[in-house]
Design brief:
4-stranded antiparallel sheet
């Protein structure tokens, strides 16, 4: 399951200007979160021709926590698409 990174949570009192989505440092595509466990994802490049982050020496910083509020809407959408 891939969760787009556009749903970035903001802390209370944080600047509310909309951040641009993170881009792949190798090809410039918008990075996505790829769920690897219930609430953990790896930030990857969706371009199949690009190897980011698997072409990097360290990938730990690409592992991120994903809140249920991000996962559930995507899961529901995928399930409704199957019908």
């Amino acid at each position: 399951m891939t969760v787009t990174t556009n749903n970035i949570k903001k802390k209370k009192g944080a600047n509310t200007t909309k951040k641009s989505p993170p881009l792949c440092p190798d090809c410039g595509s918008v990075l996505q979160k790829c769920l690897i466990q219930q609430n953990y994802a790896m930030v990857i490049c969706p371009d199949e021709k690009c190897g980011y982050p698997f072409n990097q020496r360290r990938v730990q910083e690409n592992l991120v926590y994903v809140d249920d509020s991000e996962v559930i809407p995507v899961a529901k959408q995928r399930l409704s698409d199957r019908e």
